[in-house]
Amino acid sequence: MEARDQSVRGKEAVAEVALRRRDSGLWGNSMCDVVTARKQFAPTIVSPNTQLGNMQAWDRSVDVALRAERNWALPVGQRREIVPGASHFAAHAIANPSWSNAYQVATIGDHTFYRVQRLKPRT
Prior knowledge:
The chain is α+β, with helices and mostly antiparallel strands. The protein contains 3 helices and 3 strands. The chain has helices spanning 8-24, 31-35, 55-72, and strands at residues 88-91, 103-108, 111-115. It has a 3-stranded antiparallel sheet, covered by helices on one side.
């Protein structure tokens, strides 16, 4: 849902932020925890009654997420990073978060990716 109307690269970048957050442990210990952390990703912002109307888009997003997880499972030096160090992102057409003055890593489609804080994998 988060990047449903974005390019594959945009979807990959959103997945990378979520994976980086999972590794840090600051938003939870699993991807489910991360994407359902209060007011962080679409599952906690949109109505729980939202219906998926485009199963092809859903399937493409699941494919991107699974490929992102496989990539992220590689050793750090072998991963393909799209938004290195990005811990946050925003679609400025619908949000203007207080941290949007942080270091901008990249803009892909409608999303700008930021390094708001340096996230380190938990030990």
